[in-house]
Amino acid sequence: MGDTSLKLDRRGFLAAGAAGLAVAAIGAAAPAGADTAAKPPRLTLHVLDVHRGRPAAGMRIDLSRLDGSGAHAVKTVQTQANGRTAEPVLVGDDLVPGEYELLLHLGDYYAAQGVRQSEPPFLRQVPIRFTVYAREAFHIPVLVTPWSYSTYRGS
Amino acid sequence: MTTDTSTGFSRRDMLAAGAALATLALAPAAQAADGAPKSRLTTHVLDTYNGRPGGGMRIDFLKRDGERYVLDKTVSTNAEGRVDTPLLPVEGAAAIGRYQLVFHVAEYFATNGAEQSNPPFLDKVTLEFAIFEAEEHYHVPLLCSPWSYTTYRGS
């Protein structure tokens, strides 16, 4: 059966649809590692304020590299209204494998938000130390309240 | 009261023993005989990769002294993921101050069946916090997998 024009015949259409679904399913089932390995190397973060139920805007975060001789300041970034930085924290060749620390100035953030904290704040600054073990995309989400935080390697 | 004549235990004895065991399981470690906590600060490691307490994990406990954190003691979690040694003895010096708990997570997962990256994404997890009330109890647990961790002020 077939329509000799450019339109797909019914069998071709069904085959294309099945192939499309298969590709989508494989993509969805791919482990996070495969997905992050496919993206260009970079370091990004995302801070969610789950005390106020919104992204954490205007939070200051210091990035340092850690090695045998201690912590070495790399840069300081600030989150935008969406809880992310305007640009990736590190991109491409700047993402040198090794251990890093993101230091979140959580006490200052909640003070600026007018959220009552203990004196001194239970969590004044939050160090998140992790290792970039390959030139991949590393995404570090952090969910925060004045009394808790959670983080993980995301994508 | 019925008695099992073969073992000599009465049903009441069995129930009492069972209740005692249950209390022991629920009670935080480092408790005095009257149930009062012996430490101002307790922690608890939950291994969310294996779905069980993180037993046998090394933890460094540091106190802030001026601009630096100084090692006070290194402990290891028991089979329940708790610490038997009081971190901040109740009868000791005032607890108000800033502290760090450093959990040797990579070392733990290397011997607890988890496949980690090389080098591990999380090596040592550092929690930094302040104790701001002299008479209160602080429970700071860690839920962790090789790729994530969560902490909060518990009770």
TrEMBL record, chain A:
GO molecular function: hydroxyisourate hydrolase activity
Pfam families found in the cross-reference section: Transthyretin (PF00576)
UniProt KW keywords: Hydrolase, Purine metabolism
Catalyzed chemical reaction(s): 5-hydroxyisourate + H2O = 5-hydroxy-2-oxo-4-ureido-2,5-dihydro-1H-imidazole-5-carboxylate + H(+)
GO biological process, alphabetically ordered: purine nucleobase metabolic process
Residues making up the signal peptide according to the UniProt record: none
Subunit structure, interactors included: Homotetramer.
Name by which UniProt lists this protein: 5-hydroxyisourate hydrolase
Native species: Plasticicumulans lactativorans
Lineage, highest ranks first: Bacteria, Pseudomonadati, Pseudomonadota, Gammaproteobacteria, Candidatus Competibacteraceae
Automatic annotation (TrEMBL), chain B:
Function: Catalyzes the hydrolysis of 5-hydroxyisourate (HIU) to 2-oxo-4-hydroxy-4-carboxy-5-ureidoimidazoline (OHCU).
Pfam families: Transthyretin (PF00576)
Subunit structure of this chain's protein: Homotetramer.
Recorded family membership: Belongs to the transthyretin family. 5-hydroxyisourate hydrolase subfamily.
Protein name: 5-hydroxyisourate hydrolase
Keywords: Hydrolase, Purine metabolism, Signal
Record bears the keyword Thylakoid: no
Catalytic activity: 5-hydroxyisourate + H2O = 5-hydroxy-2-oxo-4-ureido-2,5-dihydro-1H-imidazole-5-carboxylate + H(+)
GO BP annotation list: purine nucleobase metabolic process
Organism: Plasticicumulans lactativorans
Domain of life: Bacteria
Alphabetized GO MF terms: hydroxyisourate hydrolase activity
Domain Transthyretin/hydroxyisourate hydrolase: 41-154
